[in-house]
Write a structure and sequence with these properties.
With 203 residues, the protein is of the alpha+beta class. It folds into 2 domains: 4-77, no CATH class; 82-202, no CATH class. It contains 8 helices and 6 strands; from the N terminus they run ααααααβββαβββα. The chain has helices spanning 4-11, 16-22, 27-34, 50-60, 64-77, 82-95, 140-152, 185-202; strands at residues 100-108, 111-119, 125-132, 156-158, 161-163, 176-178. Strands 1-2-3-6 form a 4-stranded antiparallel sheet, covered by helices on one side. Strands 4-5 form a two-stranded antiparallel ribbon. A hairpin with a 2-residue loop joins β1 and β2. α2 (16-22) crosses α4 (50-60), α4 (50-60) packs across α5 (64-77) and α7 runs antiparallel to α8 (185-202). The longest helix is centred in the C-terminal third of the chain and has 18 residues, at 185-202. The protein is elongated and about 70 Å long.
């Protein structure tokens, strides 16, 4: 993923130096808000220094609130790498207090799956795989939206439990692969609650 702040500035026809001059802010402060963290992960909109947001707003003749909203919107639509998607899942599941193991699996032909194995109240686990295919764009918005739908989809009741709705005849690989196993009512309700938390995170 390109650096969020730089993409936003470029989309608005300015650069870091323009913001430093017009917003009367130190260029180093702006650079720190643009470069990745020491572990290599890119900064989210919420990680950008408020002084930089104010300086960008001054430069673009917008309010700081408008700038932050536009940065968040851009962040949700930016193409993510496998590592960024893995970190997103780790962080979002941690925020829900879910116990989960998130790993990356090689699908061949440079395709990868980011797999979240989530502990359920029954002490069983359920797997959701985010497919990062070479020819597809993977955005934060798509991942969070499709994952919450997949979690809420265990509503088809059969004799041995609740299943996700079965989708047949679709040649395209879905963004999210769900594990087709029966769940207890308690486990299905737990996933439904998780999906609601994801809905809030995606807004």
């Amino acid at each position: 993923m390109e650096k969020l702040l730089d993409v936003y500035l470029k989309n608005n026809g300015v650069n870091r130096s323009n913001v430093a001059r017009a917003g009367q802010t130190n260029l180093t402060t702006i650079q720190r808000s643009a470069i990745p963290f020491s572990d290599g992960t890119n900064r989210n909109a919420d990680d950008i220094n408020p002084r930089v947001v104010f300086a960008v707003a001054e430069t673009l003749h917008k309010t700081p609130g408008q700038v932050l909203d536009e940065l968040i919107e851009l962040e949700m639509k930016n193409d993510m790498t496998t590592d960024e998607t893995k970190l997103l899942l780790i962080n979002i599941l941690d925020e829900t207090n879910a116990t989960a193991l998130v790993t990356v699996e090689d699908m061949g032909d440079d395709n990868e799956a980011i797999v979240a194995e989530i502990d359920l109240p029954s002490e069983d686990t359920i797997r959701f795989a985010v497919n990062n295919l070479v020819d597809n764009t993977l955005t934060k918005d798509d991942v969070l939206t499709d994952l919450r739908y997949a979690m809420a989809d265990y509503d088809h009741e059969e004799e041995d439990g609740f299943y996700p709705t079965y989708h047949d005849g679709n040649d395209e690989r879905p963004l999210i692969d769900t594990e087709y196993v029966p769940l207890s009512k308690e486990d299905a309700d737990y996933l439904e609650k998780l999906s609601k938390v994801l809905f809030k995170a995606a807004k």
